[in-house]
């Protein structure tokens, strides 16, 4: 293992200390817990639904990188690949609630589902209303018809963006949840991994991928994918990814989509653009219009190399929310 | 008889004893269909509740006592079953009478709130081989006992017996949730560990009533 760190068991704490030191004007911790972060300068009197996310560390800029104006209000940060606790989520929730309810928006992983569920019970006792929306864009993680078992990966960005903009425009909790669910329902992602990731406290990869191999559909914690094959070219890889996405969510010609090409941590942007080149060619060839294309890192898996492609089928409302202004210190495409 | 705050503490002590006695059984049932930590989850969770309830600064109000107990359990055992049982306890607390003791009718409302809360959180339905397959029959038995004029002890007795019978019936069901789902058809013939834990908890409560009513 080659990592720039001090003590493995201080990995998350020291990362959070660094983030707070670097971005004091944008992020602050609440309740004396580095794992509970909220946006600085929140106007408590504003009539606005608050949005809270959370999840394990090891995925920057996910999750805390999407806290900021036009995006999310707060985040509970777990240890590497581990859910934050219900109490941490509840603490962030109390800090950001303005009395108009709180949307819980997070990836569909059992630990997060459990802890956000319990945080709802805690918030409820304090008189804070919560509604849950879970990201489940990974089309490779379960078959069609079992979307509720799918994992949330990089495509949650679109849900964050839509939710943040809808809340900013003053929609009520049900309205924000409706827009967010629509964004989730219209987003599909497929990833491909070329090399594994290493959890600092474990110190070695939990699985291996051979030098000449790739795994299609692997999750961002190394969850098993759909197929392990010999390394393909970028074009062949995109063809396989888009085939899954478009089979799962057919997109008629004349539609407008946004596309996000996400690096998993150790893949250079050059390669992401080579992938996007093929995505663009295929979609344009089908008569599909692309807008607000995003290329960069949105949901990583430590030093895993590989990438994911996300497609969201837009309508007027979602297009509008993608256009709204938003910013965060870690937001890769302002 | 109706339940006062200290009776509630007594009931939880009895539940804790029941899951402690049954720990190995729960562990082996869960090892067959899950990851084998259910016995420990229940024992640690109820132990934490009893420790909490015994504290001098524990809430004097039954509703608050139950809600805080649920949070305590959730924090101690943040697994799926730990969280679901905690949710039930929190919801029961929220539904507890604002003042006065808990009679059979109030008990039914608390029990119903608990089951509904667990159903929402688990996203499971009846018949999918989960704890709900013990909870719903127990809830119905409570309701039936109440409608024929039973007091809270009679209702708990009926509910606990119904849960015991329901656990046996879960052996015929197919697991579709959680780790058990991967066993598919192989899950048939084995009782559901979650339902078994519910029956065990309720047996503890029933035994408390038997002891208390007969003195």
Biggest interface reads:
A-B, 14 and 18 residues
Tell me the major beta sheet of chain A: 7 strands, mixed
Cα-to-Cα separation, first versus last residue of chain A: 34 Å
CATH fold label of chain B: Serine Threonine Protein Phosphatase 5, Tetratricopeptide repeat
Count, helices of chain A: 8
Low-pLDDT runs of 5+ residues of chain B are none
Gyration radius of chain A (Cα, Å) is 19 Å
Q: What is the CATH class of chain B?
A: Mainly Alpha
Number of DSSP strand runs of chain B: 0
What is the residue-averaged pLDDT of chain B?
94
Helix content of chain B: 55-70%
Nearest-angstrom radius of gyration of chain B?
16 Å
User: How large a portion of the residues of chain A is in β-strands, by DSSP E?
Assistant: 15-25%
What is the CATH third-level topology name of the largest domain in chain A?
Answer: Rossmann fold
Largest sheet, strands/sense/barrel of chain B: none
Mean pLDDT over the full residue set of chain A: 95
Keyword list:
heterodimer, A: about 325 residues, alpha/beta, Rossmann fold, Hypothetical Protein Tm841, Chain: A,domain 3, 2 domains, seven-stranded mixed β-sheet, six-stranded mixed β-sheet, 8 helices, 13 strands, about 25% strand, globular, B: about 220 residues, mainly alpha, Serine Threonine Protein Phosphatase 5, Tetratricopeptide repeat, 9 helices
Characterization of this structure:
The complex is a heterodimer of chains A (334) and B (215). Chain A has 334 residues and is α/β, with parallel strands linked by helices. Chain A has 2 domains: 9-186, 3-Layer(aba) Sandwich (Rossmann fold); 187-321, Hypothetical Protein Tm841, Chain: A,domain 3 (2-Layer Sandwich). Chain A has helices at residues 11-22, 86-96, 110-125, 156-168, 173-185, 234-248, 269-285, 316-323, and strands at 27-30, 33-39, 50-57, 74-80, 102-107, 130-135, 187-195, 213-216, 227-230, 256-263, 289-290, 294-296, 305-314. In chain A, the strands form 2 sheets. In chain A, strands 7, 8, 9, 10, 11, 12 and 13 form a 7-stranded mixed sheet that branches. In chain A, strands 1-2-4-3-5-6 form a 6-stranded mixed sheet, with helices on both faces. In chain A, strand 5 (102-107), helix 3 (110-125) and strand 6 form a beta-alpha-beta unit. In chain A, helix 2 packs across helix 3. The mean pLDDT of chain A is 95. With 215 residues, chain B is mainly α. Chain B has a single domain, classed as Serine Threonine Protein Phosphatase 5, Tetratricopeptide repeat, CATH 1.25.40. The two termini of chain B are 12 Å apart. The model of chain B has no long low-confidence stretch (mean pLDDT 94).
């Amino acid at each position: 293992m080659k990592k720039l760190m001090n003590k493995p068991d201080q990995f998350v704490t020291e990362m959070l200390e660094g983030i707070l030191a670097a971005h004091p004007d944008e992020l602050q911790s609440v309740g004396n817990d580095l794992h509970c972060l909220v946006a600085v300068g929140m106007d408590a009197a504003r009539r606005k639904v608050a949005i809270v996310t959370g999840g394990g560390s090891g995925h920057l800029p996910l999750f805390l990188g999407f806290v900021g104006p036009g995006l999310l209000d707060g985040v509970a940060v777990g240890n590497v690949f581990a859910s934050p606790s219900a109490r941490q989520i509840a603490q962030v929730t109390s800090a950001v609630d303005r009395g108009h309810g709180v949307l819980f928006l997070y990836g569909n992983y059992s630990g997060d589902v459990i802890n956000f569920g319990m945080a709802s019970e805690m918030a409820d006792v304090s008189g804070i209303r919560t509604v849950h929306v879970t990201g489940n864009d990974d089309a490779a993680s379960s078959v069609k018809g079992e979307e509720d078992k799918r994992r949330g990966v990089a495509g949650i960005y679109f849900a964050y963006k839509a939710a943040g903009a809808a809340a900013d425009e003053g929609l009520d909790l049900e309205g924000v949840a409706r827009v967010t669910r629509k964004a989730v329902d219209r987003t599909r992602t497929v990833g491909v991994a070329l090399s594994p990731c290493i959890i600092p406290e474990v110190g070695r990869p939990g699985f291996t991928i051979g030098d000449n191999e790739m795994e299609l559909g692997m999750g961002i914690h190394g969850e098993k994918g759909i197929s392990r094959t010999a390394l393909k070219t970028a074009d062949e890889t995109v063809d396989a990814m888009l085939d899954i996405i478009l089979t799962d969510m057919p997109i008629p010609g004349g539609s407008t989509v946004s596309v996000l090409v996400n690096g998993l941590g150790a893949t250079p942007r050059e390669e992401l653009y080579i992938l996007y080149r093929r995505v663009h060619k295929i979609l344009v060839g089908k008569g599909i219009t692309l807008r607000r294309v995003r290329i960069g890192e949105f949901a990583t898996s430590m030093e895993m190399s590989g990438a994911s492609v996300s497609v969201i089928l837009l309508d007027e409302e979602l297009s509008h929310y993608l256009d709204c202004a938003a910013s965060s210190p870690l937001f890769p495409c302002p | 008889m109706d339940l006062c705050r200290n009776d509630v503490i007594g009931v939880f002590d009895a539940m804790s004893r029941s899951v402690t006695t049954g720990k190995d059984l729960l562990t082996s049932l869960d090892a067959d269909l899950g990851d084998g930590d259910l016995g420990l989850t229940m024992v640690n969770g109820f132990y934490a509740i009893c420790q909490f309830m015994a504290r001098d600064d524990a809430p004097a109000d039954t509703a608050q006592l139950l809600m805080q107990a649920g949070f305590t359990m959730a924090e101690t055992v943040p697994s799926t079953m730990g969280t679901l049982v905690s949710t039930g306890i929190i919801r029961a607390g929220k539904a507890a009478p604002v003042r006065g003791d808990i009679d059979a009718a109030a008990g039914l409302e608390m029990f119903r709130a608990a089951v509904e809360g667990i159903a929402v959180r688990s996203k499971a339905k009846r018949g999918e081989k989960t704890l709900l397959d013990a909870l719903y029959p127990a809830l119905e038995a409570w309701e039936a006992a109440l409608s024929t004029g039973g007091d809270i002890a009679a209702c708990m007795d009926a509910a606990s017996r119904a849960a015991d019978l329901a656990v046996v019936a879960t052996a015929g069901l197919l697991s579709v949730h959680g780790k058990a789902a991967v066993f598919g058809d192989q899950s048939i013939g084995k009782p559901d560990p979650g339902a078994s834990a519910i029956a065990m908890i309720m047996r503890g409560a029933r035994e408390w009533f038997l002891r208390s009513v007969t003195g």
